[in-house]
Amino acid sequence: MRQTLIAMSIAAALATMAGCSKESQNLETAVVPESAAVAIAESGQVTATLSNPLLVEWKGPYGGVPAFDKMKVADLKPALEFGMAERLAEVDAIANSPEPATFANTIEAMERSGKALNRVFTYWGIWSGNMSSPEFRAVQAEMAPKLAAFNSKIVQNDKLFQRVKAVYDARKTANLNAEQLRVVELVYDQFATNGATLTGEAKARYAEINNRLAELHTRFANNVLADEEGYDLFLTSDQLAGLPESFVAAAAALAEEKGEKGKYAITNTRSSMDPFLTYSDNRELREKVWNNYYSRGDNGGEHDNNAIIAEILKLRDERVGLLGFENYAQWRLQNRMAKNPANAIELMEAVWPAAVARVHEEVADMQAVADAEKAGIKIEPWDYRYYAEKVRKAKYDLNSDEVKQYLQLDKLREGMFYVAGELFNFAFTPVKEGSVPVFHEDVKVWEVTDKTTGAHIGLWYLDPFARAGKRSGAWASMYRDHTTFDGKQTVLASNNSNFIKGAPGEPVLVSWDDAETFFHEFGHALHFLASNVAYPTLNSGVRDYTEFQSQLLERWLSTDPIIDNYLVHYKTGEPIPAELVAKIKKAADFNQGFATTEYLASALVDMKLHTTDPEGIDPDKFERETLQALGMPSELVMRHRTPHFGHIFSGEGYSAGYYGYMWADVLTSDASEAFAEAEGGFYDKEVAGKLVKYLFAPRNAMDPAEAYRLFRGRDAGIEPLMRDRGFPVPGEKTKSVATASN
Fold first, then answer.
1. Which residues contact 630 (CB under 8 A, 6 or more apart)?
2. Which of 197, 265, 670, 700 is positioned for an S-S bond with 254, CB 3.0–4.6 A?
């Protein structure tokens, strides 16, 4: 096809410049098909320049890499406008084709479209997650509803949907392979479950709701970020009692970075809050830090999220009502492994009583310690971590700070690379400094290759440290999917954490929980890197399944090769003592009441929020009354309180889906037993081969339940999960969760 270059301003004329080189123009150029170019030029909507680096096709080594060093927020809006216009033009060309609909000219053409916009979304994701700023948030607030309207234009393009439907209806006789059939079904579902079948006023209202939800999701996320950035606590040296040396050093460095040299910064993020509540002897400060963290989005004023939540719930309920669903959760779960809210609730309620009973045991143990110390207190939520640590020391002679001395971030990363080499045959090699652009000096990049053949697989980016403008928590992202249908595209994957950077020259020491989270997120990256599918859509995830692969990888942290070779003392270099390892393993299910109950409380509230009539809902009141009805122990709270529950209110990725972590953990516990039973244990080559073949490489190219059966030979039951957490195992055989997807 002849290519056309578009001078991207309203006044610019359409110019054919097929023979012009980049050098003669002194510009990088955005190249689009002529049909799309004409549509864009005629739309009168796009105002950008050809030199916009966010639009330019990725250049350089490794199949091209994002130009993170050229990112400017000023380029974002015009790039998005161009990308949306180009994609709509491509979609219109597909929809208006005079040829009968086929897999090639409809589904495959759609898989090929939107490349420029996908590149822009990569940069959007970096600003949103890693490098947010007031300037970006202004653009984000303006563009979020426009992006929602853009998506609605595609889903509600009836001509396009009719072509998709024609391919779907003829799929059984169209001589398609298994991956192509799966793509057809997934694409059809994307349309059918998102309003494509609506007409008239209902169709218009559906799009209107999507636009408003996009605005509200963005405001919710930015309100939480504002409360995280606005509640730093600066301590003086007389307020540090009980805090580990490594934490104090990191807090001092962070305070200096924030312009408070000589003080110690406690930021309003989990990575700072959690260790402070675990070790600080100052109960008054523990309460303050606890309140700062758990009241995010719930402080009144301009950053309060309660009214936003109420409106989100009403709009979601109205939207799915247009499609004929009783509630949002019913709509959300139709294509998940759980299939319906009842199956998800059944699993959670099967575990809840044992978890709460364990909490009562844990609190009794903690209260006994407090009473023995004559503390004169009743255990409150800001005491739980502190006294749990004392119980841990008393019951298991296990000191979490002692364990941290052997958990160096860099060594843990090396251990993860070892696991990837043993299970996936991957090798990780640092790229030459400066050869791959990064968006912050903390970000490091490795090339991933096949250990045997040396074949290039992709790149892995690591952004490990907390900073202003970076959202809290830990996550994995893909900058580029693996695909083969239109020329092989290799993976660009990233892991992102919020570890507190150590003092200059000092290693970063982390807790055992943080080390597990590091392995967890690396599991997501391995899922990306192991992908062996042809089409972009097949890299999409089934939410109550995609956490399984990452949760499973946590199990390798405590395997002998990692313990023996990578858990070494940060000063002496000596391996972690066998007796300390024995204590860690003995205490493996310690505090599971707390961990399971705080998680399940969030998951159950999420599900109940999305199965309840939201008319007149008061989110704070609903949270309190729901937890009371569940019998939530007063000594702890939800892992994510409703006003800052970003999983479900800053977007829709986990909405009515937070249960998925436990659904996936049932699979995790069962799959772990497969390795434990194998001759080679967790490094058994045969089981590892099946793991990669059936559970990692296919991504969404096959039904997750069928994939699991191919790996395990049967469905997964709840018993291994209960054993892992030290809970009583039901006497009778329990329902297998995977069968719900039949």
1. 352, 601, 604
2. 265
Residue of 372, 357, 231 whose CA lies nearest to 295: 231
Query: What letter would DSSP give residue 555?
Result: G
What residues contact residue 27 under an 8 Å CB cut-off, 6+ apart? Answer: 50, 51
| Residue of 349, 322, 344 lying closest to 334 (CA atoms) | 344
What percent of the chain shows pLDDT beyond 70? Answer: 92
| Cβ atoms of 632 and 597 closer than 8 Å | yes
In this structure, what DSSP letter does residue 691 have?
I
pLDDT at 542: 87
Residue 523: helix, strand or coil by DSSP? helix
β-bridge pairing 444-450 and 233-235: unpaired
pLDDT per position as a tens digit, 377-401? 999 999 999 999 999 999 999 888 9
Structural domains for the chain: 3-197 (1.10.1370.40), 231-294 (no CATH), 306-349+594-741 (1.10.1370.10), 404-586 (1.10.1370.40)
Which tokens belong to 121? 């979304």
DSSP assignment, residue 433? T
What is the pLDDT at residue 588? Answer: 87
**Tokens 């959690």, located at residue:** 274
**What distance in Å separates the CA atoms of residue 46 and residue 99, rounded to the nearest whole number?**
30
Q: For 622-655, give one letter per residue: b (16+ CB within 10 A) or e.
A: bbeebbeebebbebbbbbbbbbbbbbbbbebebb
Residue 453: HSE in the Cβ half-sphere, 13 Å Cα cutoff = 5
Query: What is the C-alpha to C-alpha distance for residues 654 and 656, in angstroms, rounded to an integer?
Result: 6
Provide the annotated active-site residues. Answer: 521
Integer Cα distance of 524 and 538 in angstroms: 15
Per the document, the length of the chain is 742
- Please state, in angstroms and rounded to a whole number, the distance separating the CA atoms of residues 43 and 86: 10
pTM for this model (two decimals)? 0.84
pLDDT in tens, 60-110: 999 999 999 999 999 999 999 999 999 999 999 999 999 999 999 999 999
